[in-house]
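2 proteins. here.
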Amino acid sequence: MSDAWLADTRSELKTLLDVFDLHGKTLASAQLKIVLELLDAKPDKKLGHGDTYEDRRSLAPAMEPATFKAKNPLITKLSRVMTLSQDDCAGLQAMCQDVRQTGARRDIIRDGDRPERVHLILNGWACRYKILKNGKRQITALLLPGDFCDLHVGVLDRMDHAIGAITSTTFAYVDRLQFEELTRSRPAIMRALWWATLVDEGVLRSWLVSLGVRTARERVAHLICELRERMRNIDREDGGQFAMPLTQPDLAEALGLTAVHINRVVRQLMKEGVLEIRKGQVTVLDLPALTEIAEFDPSYLHAQSIDKHK
């Protein structure tokens, strides 16, 4: 494929996307966005069926030191529940010196990999997922800035699921020995990371309840409420508005529904004036109503301080 052909194709598809958006064709628009993201990605010719983990790791080249200028989202998140000293924060920042980037819709870690380092999301969204032989995919967790992809990499022999980037993603590539030394020498950090692990388990239990007994409407409402709380915890929510770069197929794979069903539920919630979703942004217009629909209780996110347990 020539560069000229790709440029013409992108232009035509973006024109078609505008037409879909204009006429409210939400599902077709979401699917077309995935095609555009794939066209915009620049695949590495080294990637193939016989590639090694070292080859795949090269797809996320190291950035220049201190390139990531934003406030460290891990420190923001942990500081909400634990008083961290300046030395604690300096230690967390120091382990994030090797910063890498990967494009949207690409794997950060593959199922079966033996990662030698810990991956910490600094910017962008990723997900844990599993694919069956028939090609069906289930998203089992959404990873936001400040989340670890593989916190216990030193314990597990290999990954039993994959980590995929939903958007272009920036992550810290943390040396495992450095990480273990930091947690061993800094009790406050150790306790805060145990808290983060317990929150992850709480989120997983909540997702199991959604898949088991919540209706489609309740599942969507509950996930929106959860994401709003999680984005608030890293200072990325403002007045009920936050980024949610998930397509309807993404939501379907996370909530155990079809994309058509997701489209129907989202349109109904927007019609009721409860929320608005436009171009990757969610605005919660009526939080009490959304909370009531979801029967949302944020206690499983354990946002209270854990300092009292010192």
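next one coming up
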Amino acid sequence: MTTLHHGPTTGAHSAAVETPEPMPVPQRVIESLVDAALAEDNPTGDLTGNVLLPVHATATADVIAREPGIASGLGIFSTTMTRTDPTTTVEFALADGQEFAAGDVLATVRGSARSVLAGERVALNLLQRLSGIATLTRAFVDAVAGTGTRIADTRKTTPGLRALERYAVRCGGGHNHRGSLSEAVMAKDNHLALLGTGAELTAALRAARARLGHTVHFEVEIDGLDQLEAVLAAGVDTIMLDNFTVEDLVEGVRRINGAAYVEASGNVTLDTVAALAATGVDVISSGALTHSVRALDVGLDMRLGASRAPGTPIAGAPQAQGTVRA
């Protein structure tokens, strides 16, 4: 069971950019990913906890931030704890997407001491990584504030964790690129190399467009201004200007002139992103949001509770697993 308080956490300062509540990940997807992670970390029981801790011992643990950041994965943390033991309870002091300061208590966990420790590592691993992604994303979003340019992720995600990592990007105020190869058409350099140049390329792109449903988005990546006219003539939805200089981005935006969305990508850093946004591009995508992120330092501080008699439920715990809010 999870109790979630939507209020500012003690010591946190207000974020520079107000972001809407992130679109959630379906609970069945979270449970599937969490179950796989628990099966990897605890396949047949926690040997250490089982030999050291009394079976009826209870514990309370505080999730404490060792550094400031943006929260992401709170519901995923609680799902990990309740999938380990449905009688475990988790109470949060803030919501995903909110900012916290070093030293803040993000959540309090109560339950069987054995169960809390059995779920601890997986729960923290997910919370730390997702909060790291949200925090880095928010830094990029803050850097382009006021320009109207969106910050987006890429498919450079951890295999198996894409749904969660893309959720973390949303928690940081960023947007998602296509989620898979099946979601949209995106012709990249290796595709274009097989399609020719000039009028031949235009014809190939138009023929591909004719095969698509009207709701399917069509994006083409180019790596030089010399490819731009052929792609523009094909009437695609988005043109990605990959690894362009700031000067060439300005020229690309001028030539496209609203005929397609303009995306910039390649070598995007916190030092360069503001200058890229100032060129007038609509979207800046960066794989670094997910593939190079550093997990935030978040810890679980335990304190032993009173033992309970066999069969006695933990105070305040549900008798069956309740709904967990992501």
